Amino acid sequence: MTERTLIKDLAAASDGAISVSGWVDTIRDQKKVQFVVLRDESGATQLVHPKNFAEDGTPLADELADTISALTVGTFLTATGELKHDERVKLGGVEIKLDGLAVVSEAAVSPIAEDSSGDKRMDWRFLDLRVPKNSLVFKVQTTFLHALRTYWVERDFIEIHTPKLMASASESKAELFEVDYFERKAYLAQSPQFFKQMAQPAGFGKIFEVGPAFRADPSFTSRHATEFTSVDTEFSWIDSHEDVMKVHEELLVAGFQAIKDKHGDEIKALYDVDVVVPTVPFPRVPLAEAKRIVAERGYEVPRADDDMDPEGERQIAAWALETYGHEFVFLTDYASSIRPFYHMRHEGDAALTNSYDLIFNGVEISTGAQREHRIDVLIEQAKEKGLEPEELDFYLDFFRYGVPPHGGFGMGLSRVLMLLLKMPNIREATYLFRGPTRLLP
Amino acid sequence: MTERTLIKDLAAASDGAISVSGWVDTIRDQKKVQFVVLRDESGATQLVHPKNFAEDGTPLADELADTISALTVGTFLTATGELKHDERVKLGGVEIKLDGLAVVSEAAVSPIAEDSSGDKRMDWRFLDLRVPKNSLVFKVQTTFLHALRTYWVERDFIEIHTPKLMASASESKAELFEVDYFERKAYLAQSPQFFKQMAQPAGFGKIFEVGPAFRADPSFTSRHATEFTSVDTEFSWIDSHEDVMKVHEELLVAGFQAIKDKHGDEIKALYDVDVVVPTVPFPRVPLAEAKRIVAERGYEVPRADDDMDPEGERQIAAWALETYGHEFVFLTDYASSIRPFYHMRHEGDAALTNSYDLIFNGVEISTGAQREHRIDVLIEQAKEKGLEPEELDFYLDFFRYGVPPHGGFGMGLSRVLMLLLKMPNIREATYLFRGPTRLLP
Fold first, then answer.
1. Residue A2: which pLDDT band, with cuts at 50, 70 and 90?
2. I need a surface site. Which of A263, B36, B88, B430 has the fewest CB within 10 A?
3. Which residues of A are annotated as a binding site?
4. B94 and B143 assigned to the same domain
5. Is the ipTM of this complex over 0.90?
């Protein structure tokens, strides 16, 4: 490896010979002295080169000065020089007086600027991600997922990787991507739903998966993508969806605590957001009650079915924040009419399900539920939804040879990050966004 | 949650009232006493019920005995009773004298048995996975990946999720799955190659990803699948592929150490395999030399090109084991003719690349390389391979605006697990295998 010091470690390094590598952020080529701000994945620092002059003020031959004058923004290089701590230097309190500068890869002029349109920035995503604010979300993502996985692993959850190629739909037939699969058709998994449930009759007890899911959703909203990273868990021997919510909120506490500890200051500096580690229990409101609360606030959800709508979710989130000071709220007990056939229904009231949505800062980030594990009830519910039990046979088999009661949730990773950082849309929280008209880069 | 004790915790629990939940493994319904072996995700234990008799030996009414007699193998239930430590009990030195038994989900007779064909076992994968030997691989997988991710996270690697929907091929056009994508065609990513490289000009420094990759490979071998989990990493500022190999072997040491610590005994018991934590450095052999060594052992690789073949890989692995006592061997410096256009070539000898394959127990598990980051050289190499630079334009752009030298590797997760546990084929190491004729369950 190149013997380089990361820029974040310069402040703690001793004065003297040093080498840093990164890309040119800005150049100030002045008459007597040149400054280059160099950036790497960890920060930015100032390189300085006083030009050579004769005693009478005539410029002398200065190869290094010529190299610096010819630099372009974005060029990757390795700089060697003398590190000097100097508290007058605003950028980290250090600067490097250059001895040498090796250009590794010269940059053409960037086609984007700060004020480029969102679409153009996406065309040049790899350049857009050089902006510290834009890459921070992926450092946060790394910390968040590692905290979740550590929670799971410490509690003996098993990590699985369910297939994304399926013989049939896992959710709705409407938003299904079709694949040419040798002599037949396959479909891209809309969620790992069926296969994470499969781990329960398989006797795995508790599982988790973080992986892609695909929805051929033609809509262009700020929170939809055709491909997204789904955070899933599923576990056995629950009594109700309450047990799922408990694990869900513990996971989020672990994840947000890790984010706050590691990135709280940087998030505050770059996003002006205070990361709040939520307290448990999160507020829980049955959906019917939530609709009454929202109506009392003057908003009638304009839907014929029993569901919430995005404005309703914003309203109930505002209410939860006012009432409990909480950024999260579980909406529970959704009507069976608007839930998939595999959600378990209330004992004694088949109109309601043992399910919930989790709302974070006004937007739904997750759906969880206890699953129906009784094969006869499950078949009835499938039929009631107009599904053909024959097509679901491979799934229904999971329930014919013994299966424990179980439940779980799926959560959209980029939605959590978007709402945490209060980003305007999900594209900013996705490494490479995929939408109906977006397949590149 | 159901208040249950995990079976693995029974030995350490005090005698007295206890509740366990799991599925029926075996039933011995004897004249005077009934035994049920109950299994959960953590182990198996014996439930015992002495039947009720009058003093004269006449059987008395015994509802519990009737319930037990009616049990079927695979049925999920919750058992309550008195835990008793008794070293005469072979199964864990404890048994539970039953007070009650609540059947949760009755099982139909399993369609598979120990001697069922591999194909039939795959049809009923969820039942096959109830066998502890078959599920152990996923516990090992969990531990392995967590150790790798911990290595990465502790060293500030960033986790990314690259899109699996692409506008063009990432590797070869031959093994590409085509997707109907709204009004056009998309393709499933054969690897995250292009997009993990994108993180380098984006200034991410070091990244990792664990996710699915897709190959429309029609072959039916013991080590191929149409969908597999790829373990990928890529990082900047390397001097050569040697830097990639160093990270690679450190990761494997961390992963294997964690596996040995957590599962060594169980792997020995169920697979009769001693987990060997490899020593560093792993042996490194340039491919040309490897072919000479193999030839000296009496095997001439029957290929017209410069590549190895599976038997050659087995031979060189046997040689490395004999010579160095090492289960791993890096084959380095592959010929440019058999490597993709994006591998960097030797300075001064364009016939060879800065690349390697990693062989583990005789089979290739990974390819790594330094990437060509000089745009002019990269375009030349693409043309030489018969590719159209126009089609690759979005990828070539990554190199036009500055890019650091970088490299990385991709590694097949199930291959590592298969070879570690000396399994006969990759299907056993995959949660749900996908092959040319296998899309179900």
1. low
2. B88
3. 171, 215, 364, 367, 371, 412-415
4. no
5. yes
